[in-house]
């Protein structure tokens, strides 16, 4: 596993440690306190299987103006939110013709993966399913079973641990199996979260290098500068979630930096991106600081969500920097929350404050990202896996973050909400004995 340089830590690049709920200043000594789930000593890889089908599984989005409200009803099902309030969010989609870009992004990724699997293997078909819009998970699972599939591998378009980004996908398929009466008849597993995979980090490295070069070039030509000091702030942006949900991310009994697997893994990914940039173009990080910021919060104002909000963080920089680079680290494609919350709202805030700013790309169909996903599939398929032994597969993993990586099958308590009245059925749940060394609750 790659070991990160010791100087790529927040006490240099994020002096106020704004990205976590941890100590006011982080240094190498108290960083060691946060051991993440690395203290869980069980094998993380599952034995490969002969899968009949891979399903690229995503969030879904409307395909036209008439789809917007029905789609938002699906997203908020069970919360009792009236259509009038949904219409407030619908304006983001209506401004773009009622079409979410996530669907076209997923079609492009599906096509790229189909080509990669044909050219390099493994020889397994791949299709597409959504949580909140057509093609729905339940329908795709039923069709696959009717066509003879008995072992399915799910690849979610989400890189980080957390309820919405991992466990809910596991519930989507667990519920589908239960409702279709296919429990015990159809095996469904899931590809692990891949926040640390080199092929996920590489597109952000490339984008940040180009973004910093662009901002520096434009600053050289600018007649007026916001602060006149040449400083640039990198903002790694991800979706905000309720702090209660953040604190529940990951398995229990683990001390995470920022109090959450969701926060910690974003910080680790950000440092990996910075390490890559520093290795290739160290001059670009001169007079540069960074922070992890959040976007797209919803829900009542009384409910605490992860902060700082990207626009609040930008406002706090007024008069202190000349340039800003927004890196959508929490997103794998340019869906609506990237196009609206960053490309529209955040860049408008930058313009108002006089910052020279740019937003870097998401992985999309970046060749290294597609190849990484192909390899993750290949590691789970018996005919192409580099080993049939889970312990050996653990040793063969590569990580840009210097970590063992996430679990092929998650602990039963992983990302469980304390507010849930009852646990929903899930796939990819670990059923063996678990051992934690030095864990604290």
From TrEMBL:
Broadest EC class assigned to this enzyme: lyase
Record has Metal-binding as a keyword: yes
InterPro entries: Ferrochelatase, Ferrochelatase_C, Ferrochelatase_N
Source taxon at top rank: Bacteria
Database matches in SUPFAM superfamilies: Chelatase
Pathway it works in: Porphyrin-containing compound metabolism; protoheme biosynthesis
Gene3D superfamilies reported for this sequence: 3.40.50.1400
GO molecular function, one term: ferrochelatase activity
Annotated residues for binding of Fe-coproporphyrin III: 100, 169
Subcellular location: Cytoplasm
Region (Disordered), start-end ranges: 1-24
UniProtKB keywords: Cytoplasm, Heme biosynthesis, Iron, Lyase, Metal-binding, Porphyrin biosynthesis
EC number from the UniProt entry: 4.99.1.9
Binding residues annotated for Fe(2+), in chain numbering: 239, 337
An individual GO BP term: heme biosynthetic process
Any GO CC annotation of this UniProt entry: cytoplasm
Recorded catalytic activity of this chain's protein: Fe-coproporphyrin III + 2 H(+) = coproporphyrin III + Fe(2+)
Main location (coarse class): cytoplasm
Pfam families: Ferrochelatase (PF00762)
Entry similarity comment: Belongs to the ferrochelatase family.
Role this protein plays: Involved in coproporphyrin-dependent heme b biosynthesis. Catalyzes the insertion of ferrous iron into coproporphyrin III to form Fe-coproporphyrin III.
The protein's name in its UniProt record: Coproporphyrin III ferrochelatase
UniProt organism field: Rothia amarae
